[in-house]
């Protein structure tokens, strides 16, 4: 990577007492299945929170709601103290054009890279940026090139996804989210689709982001990463947060038997 940091052009801050992003009493059902059962969740500016739990426990659903990809059935989400996902002054769902604007402040990286196969890395990263008012295509591509350099891919900006490894594709996806200068980054098991030898490429970038002050919420099974990088770990089970603690206490002295069972299974 270059001598610049990843976040030279991304707004970050130091840890503060008040939450940057928060959810209160979130409920979400898919048919008869209640996936989230009144979840309260918050992350402060500069905080890294790792979400652990079995498949189907609600972790990824929480991220999708925070990213406004789906509406909650009940509950509220705030960013910088302001409600998002609803029309101002109401509890009615916001229209997609409003959600798209609010979503710029919340970057999301998925398990699958979701890159456009017919576009180069540069175009994949610059595409959404070029759609913003007042941003020319040339400016967007210049900023995209800088961001790709920051994630260690300055030499692959003209490569197509099929020419990149899985780890490289995921780093392109991270650059694509970062180039919009989000206030918070959400990661939904970003290494689960990677070959084991490529996992470190992505985790190294994420660890650098954390060190530079990016607010991050990470769904992961990479316990070593969670223990080393996270400020707090939350354990999901059956649609609720069963336990939250700082990493050392969470991994060495979990309070709940269910948490102990899950950690023993992981190890």
User: Over the alpha carbons, how many angstroms does the gyration radius reach?
Assistant: 18 Å
Element pattern in H and E: EEEHEEHEHHHEHEHEEHH
- Average of pLDDT: 91
SS summary, helix count: 9
Please state how the strands of the largest beta sheet are arranged side by side.
6-7-8-3-9-10
Measured by DSSP, the beta-strand proportion falls in 15-25%
Specify the overall morphology.
globular
Write up what this structure looks like.
Helix content is 33%, strand content 24%. The chain is of the alpha/beta class and 267 residues long. The strands form two sheets. Strands 6-7-8-3-9-10 form a six-stranded mixed β-sheet, sandwiched between helices. It has a four-stranded antiparallel β-sheet with strand order 2-1-4-5, with helices on one face. A hairpin with a 2-residue loop joins strand 9 and strand 10. Helix 3 (121-130) packs parallel to helix 5 (166-178), helix 4 packs across helix 5 (166-178) and helix 5 packs parallel to helix 6 (199-211). The protein is globular, with a radius of gyration of 18 Å. Residues 11-16 have low confidence and may be disordered.
List the helices and strands and how they pair.
Blueprint: E1 19-30, E2 33-44, E3 48-52, H1 59-66, E4 74-79, E5 82-83, H2 96-103, E6 106-109, H3 121-130, H4 137-150, H5 166-178, E7 184-188, H6 199-211, E8 215-219, H7 223-229, E9 232-237, E10 240-245, H8 247-252, H9 257-266
Helix pairs in contact: 3-4, 3-5, 4-5, 5-6
